[in-house]
Prior knowledge:
Elements: H1 15-21, E1 31-37, E2 44-47, E3 50-56, H2 58-70, E4 75-80, H3 98-108, E5 114-119, E6 132-134, E7 137-139, H4 141-157, E8 161-164, H5 171-181, E9 188-195, H6 202-207, H7 228-239, E10 244-248, H8 254-263, E11 268-272, H9 274-285, H10 291-305, E12 309-312, H11 315-322
Parallel strand pairs: 1-3, 1-4, 1-12, 4-5, 5-8, 8-9, 9-10, 10-11, 11-12
Antiparallel strand pairs: 2-3, 6-7
Helix pairs in contact: 2-3, 3-4, 4-5, 7-8
The site of ligand PBG has 11 residues, from helix 6.
Amino acid sequence: MSFPVHRPRRLRRSENLRALVRETPLAPGDLIYPMFVCPGKNVRTEIASMPGIYQQSVDRFVEECRQVEQLGIAGIILFGLPEKKDERGSEAWAADAPVQRAAAAVKKAKLDFLVATDVCLCEYTSHGHCGVVEENQVLNDPTLELLAQTALSHARAGADLVAPSDMMDGRVGAIRRSLDQNGFADVAILAYSAKYCSAFYGPFREAAESAPQFGDRRSYQMDPANAREALREVRLDLEEGADMVMVKPALPYLDVLRAVRRAVTVPVGAYNVSGEYSMVKAAARNGWLDEKRAVLEILTGIRRAGADFILTYHAKDAARWLAG
Ligand code: PBG
């Protein structure tokens, strides 16, 4: 039996009905806000390609964190800019580098949200790659120890979650061992498991000053054409001890997100990355898109595809809009 008995529009007649039958919830508590911290005092520099997002010193960062808390956002993920870059990226694990100071400052201010840290070397290395480089090759195994040391320094500073984004093989296991051996068995690992080699990281590299100085990241980040391989990466990260996994970017990989959601029982995150943010911002500034509607539709779509939570630069705006 079909029309005229069946009329799906009956359940769309009023907002009360639509709310009753809505399948996919979206709330500020599903969102994680990425933030960039830099050295110095009273620094707050807007990133040209990411309107509304700033590189800021720890003092100014804490001010913004108070807003994040009030908006009911689940947490933040921290990225850092070092004072000086070197071959090995040694400021990545320095106890007094911006990320470590920022994590400690959130805890000291007793702010009530989660602190995740991005664990990678590319912001800290002079060559801009995510690992140790020799003869223009990014070496896997020698990088693991540096990543483990970095994650440990974040845990010491108070991070609740560490999120390795480097895509070296074996890094989750190396980080888990180092955390466990040093008394941080309770610090969780959010693995960037299926991280693709994407053009959509462009604006981030301006924000984090982390563009590779030679070559590209294709020898470690995933080929955008591969979906089955994402499941393999996820499985390996879970075997090594990942507590949660992530797909990144989000929009061009919603099929991957759905496949991962079906394949695992752990929480799955998606990273709505810088380029995805900048596209919406640029179109909205030109009056080509209604920013609020576009953002809420994008975030709902990412949730519907299977993400339990979303890392997004839209988090503060979305939280305001969701509050009404
Ligand atoms: C570090 C890292 C990157 C992003 C998150 N962690 C950049 C990259 O891999 O080049 C991208 C985030 C974004 O574009 O918003 N490896």
